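Students often ask why inverse folding is considered easier than folding. One informal answer: many sequences map to the same fold, so there is more than one right answer. In these notes we will look at a single instance of the problem. The structure comes first.
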């Protein structure tokens, strides 16, 4: 089982994460980890904080001479901004000598839509900072770092993961499912909102600009696409083994994600079965809809063809060999520069909500976090299906399954 924990405050010294269950012998590419962290920091609509940080994950354990040892991997991502926050965020009971940055006053006016009010009620804090520092999406940098390692496990079975932004506010792509894995993969890292259609992207940018000028914020949606996913991951046999449920939980756990859709998503409820379900047809020839070979060779070739993929690659909570397609729907950012009404909890009188330095829109960044969460769930499911304490064992088991399945379901000419 692949599992992880994260720790760290938004303006604390560092974020820390532990990934456990990684097989031994994986040559970990830490440059790839840095690239993913950089992708999370980008996107049109981010605030000034992201200009301060240039995230890099420092490995502390579980890796020797470049290879995973099978022991837990611990990573630390230092917060560059820490030097401005030491007098506000020190761990020691008293202000340590030499601490830097201002000693900021308590935060007492909860922001509607953030964890502020629920958090102080739950934990009995007076200072909302004790809540917001951990509830902040800064934590997702840690997820992206270990997600980048999960992606490297998935590469061993040929799986690749990409994402694209499908809507900002009311501006949306007409049909996200019409965008192929290749289309989404071809989006340049410099695309401001990581949307496949530059015309729609310009309208999205205008939507964000309008919100910024009005002191407002925007949400939107994104889709994660995983390609060459081995069929047979997950199970219908028990509720908590269904992969759709596991993926939905993983995506919903990203701050501000309020809904998740698989394949056609909520639209499935309004279509008749004849228009929704993906027909199963005989396939002729060897090259199927799974596309080109992954780095480990051909995926299991099930000798059928699915002309559509409204199911998003999952039937019965099990991957069916089609692209896995899952969408996340993000609410607008809770911190408004023109603050909403709130109550000062020290006086219990009406008062505008607190303003913290903030993003106007963070949908492209949430999409990168979404990729990481999908990678972590798929890598866990792949480890469950193929097992192995070393990468070699994992790959051997995967290949045996792939070849057996390919032979069994080979198209009959
Ligand atoms: C990548 C990313 C960046 C975010 N940036 C901000 C931000 O700058 N300001 C803010 O108020 N909320 C931001 N959020 C959303 C809050 O973290 C989130 O709304 C809050 O933790 C409450 O959780 P909930 O919305 O899931 O209920 C961001 C979320 C993500 C995924």
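Output (designed amino acids):
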């Amino acid at each position: 089982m692949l599992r992880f924990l994260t720790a760290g405050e938004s303006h604390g010294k560092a974020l820390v994460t532990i990934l456990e269950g990684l097989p031994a012998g994986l040559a970990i590419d830490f440059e790839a980890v840095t690239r993913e962290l950089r992708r999370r920091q980008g996107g049109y609509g981010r605030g000034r904080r992201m200009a301060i940080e240039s995230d890099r994950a420092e490995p502390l354990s579980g890796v020797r001479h470049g290879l995973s040892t099978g022991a837990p991997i611990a990573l630390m991502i230092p917060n560059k901004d820490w030097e401005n926050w030491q007098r506000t965020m020190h761990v020691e009971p008293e202000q340590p000598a030499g601490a830097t940055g201002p000693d900021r006053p308590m935060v007492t006016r909860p922001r509607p839509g953030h964890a502020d009010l629920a958090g102080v009620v739950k934990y009995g804090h007076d200072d909302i900072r004790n809540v917001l520092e951990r509830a902040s999406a800064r934590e997702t940098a840690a997820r992206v770092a270990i997600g980048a390692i999960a992606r490297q496990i998935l590469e061993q079975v040929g799986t690749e993961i990409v994402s694209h932004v499908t809507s900002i506010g009311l501006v949306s792509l007409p049909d996200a499912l019409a965008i192929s894995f290749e289309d989404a993969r071809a989006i340049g890292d410099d695309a401001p909102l990581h949307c496949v259609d530059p015309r729609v992207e310009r309208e999205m940018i205008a939507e964000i600009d309008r919100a910024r000028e009005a002191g407002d914020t925007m949400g939107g949606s994104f889709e994660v696409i995983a390609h060459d996913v081995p069929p047979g991951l997950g199970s219908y046999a028990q509720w908590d083994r269904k992969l759709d449920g596991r993926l939905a939980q993983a995506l919903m756990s990203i701050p501000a994600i309020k809904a998740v859709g698989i394949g056609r998503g909520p639209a499935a409820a309004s279509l008749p079965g004849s228009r929704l379900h993906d027909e199963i047809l005989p396939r002729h020839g060897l090259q199927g809809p799974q596309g080109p070979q992954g780095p480990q060779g051909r995926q299991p070739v099930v000798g059928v063809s699915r002309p559509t993929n409204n199911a998003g690659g999952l039937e019965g909570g099990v991957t069916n060999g089609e692209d896995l397609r899952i969408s996340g729907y993000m609410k607008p950012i809770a911190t408004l520069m023109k603050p909403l009404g709130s109550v000062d909890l020290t006086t219990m009188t009406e008062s505008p909500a607190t303003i913290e330095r903030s993003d106007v829109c963070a949908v492209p960044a949430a999409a990168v976090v979404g990729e990481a969460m999908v990678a972590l769930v798929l890598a866990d499911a792949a480890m469950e299906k193929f097992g192995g304490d070393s990468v070699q064992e994992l790959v051997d088991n995967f290949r045996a399954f792939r070849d057996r399945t390919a032979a069994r379901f080979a198209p009959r000419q």
